[in-house]
Design a protein that fits this description.
Helix Hairpins; 3 domains; binds zinc ion; four-stranded mixed beta sheet; HSP40/DNAj peptide-binding domain
Length: 367
């Protein structure tokens, strides 16, 4: 017959989550195997407390247990923590780095994955729009092939660390606490390299420059991120390499601007073109397009040319090109042009086209 989880943790059935956590913490510190070496009773109590906390520390499991007891938990597929590693797995959140375990029972390091790397790549506006292939030269720490990342001189074996006798942890007394911390000699590895590899000095990594081909798809923009698997820093002791993240930075274009997948372009238009209308050849990011400007176009008007924008990274569908026209007032007029414009103005006045009587209205409103 199992002891009631509440009794194991020494709390009332009505205890709050905080009280349960506190009580478990106290018990776990007291019966922790590092402080009670070779004490079977302490180990059993430690395990029982962990199992109880596994259930009562989890609101869902606690509800099932309150209602249906041990059997209810078994029916939901929960059978208690299987081994010691499971118990250590939730230490991180409760004890922080008190035991120097970084949240897990990883007392000895086996193969370790290499670090992820970041590479910032600048490309031109047109390269981003059309896509481009680049070759990157990456200098990074890569797995040493002489020792395969083990750090050992070929033919030699690692030695058991004499400081911690291979445990990776040492007991330190701090006041009346006895704390287990990572062994400073072997850094928790439990082993030391007495005959280091000549090429990497025992670290398992060497500096290498590697060329990486990168195919950048059409439509990327500043901030686009590409992940190159296993092109990051090399792993140690047979661990896999990390990944390489390439962050794209797109240079500005003199005339084109990106608005998402649309391209914005401002083009100047003469007063006469705007008034009478015209047809223009407009350069686009892909080629060129014809644009009909209707008679009576005002400055600041925009026109949309379908499918002349940037392809979407996801759907490959192209955005549009948006043309904004800037109507320009002529500045260098010759005598004949001035005459014509004056004549034009006189006709306009007679026709009563004084800006729709705007100024007259403005005088009335401001009087
Ligand atoms: Zn050691
Ligand atoms: Zn090496």
């Amino acid at each position: 017959m199992k002891t009631c989880y509440y009794k194991t943790l020494g709390v009332e059935r009505s205890a709050t989550a905080d009280e349960i956590k506190k009580s478990y913490r106290k018990l776990a510190m007291k019966y922790h195997p590092d402080r009670n070496p070779d004490n079977k009773e302490a180990e059993d109590k430690f395990k029982a407390a962990a199992e109880a906390y596994e259930v009562l520390g989890d609101a869902e499991k606690r509800k099932v247990y309150d209602q249906y007891g041990f059997e209810g938990l078994q029916n939901t597929g929960y059978s208690g923590p299987g081994d010691f590693n499971d118990i250590f797995s939730h230490f991180g959140d409760i004890f922080g780095d008190l035991f120097g375990m970084g949240g897990g029972g990883q007392r000895r390091q086996g193969p370790s994955q290499g670090a992820d790397l970041r590479y910032d790549l600048q490309i031109s506006f047109m390269e981003a729009v059309h896509g481009v292939e680049k070759e990157l030269e990456i200098t990074k720490r890569d797995t040493c092939w002489t020792c395969d990342g083990s750090g050992l001189r070929p033919g030699h074996q690692p030695q058991t660390c004499p400081t911690c006798q291979g445990r990776g942890q040492v007991i330190q007394s701090q006041g009346f606490f006895r704390l287990s911390t990572t062994c400073p000699h072997c850094h928790g590895q439990g082993q030391i390299v007495t005959d280091p590899c000549n090429d990497c000095g025992g670290g398992g990594l060497v500096r290498k420059t590697k060329k990486v081909a990168l195919k950048i798809p059409a439509g990327v923009d500043t901030g686009s991120r590409m992940r190159l698997q296993r092109e990051g820093e090399g792993g140690r002791k047979g661990g896999p390499a990390g990944d390489l993240y390439v962050i794209i930075h797109v240079e500005e274009h003199e005339f084109f601007q990106r608005h998402g997948n649309d391209i914005l372009c401002r083009i100047p238009l003469s007063m006469v073109q705007a008034a009478l209308g015209c047809e223009l050849d407009i350069p686009t990011i892909h080629d060129a397009a014809k644009l009909k400007i209707p008679a009576g176009t005002q400055g600041g008007s925009t026109f949309r040319i379908r499918n002349e924008g940037v392809p979407s990274l996801r759907t490959r569908e192209r955005g549009d090109m948006i043309v904004e026209v800037l109507v320009q007032t002529p500045t260098k007029l010759n005598k004949r042009q001035k005459e014509l414009l004056r004549e034009f103005g006189e006709i306009e006045e007679k026709a009563g086209a004084d800006g729709d009587g705007f100024l007259k209205k403005l005088f009335q409103k401001s009087a």
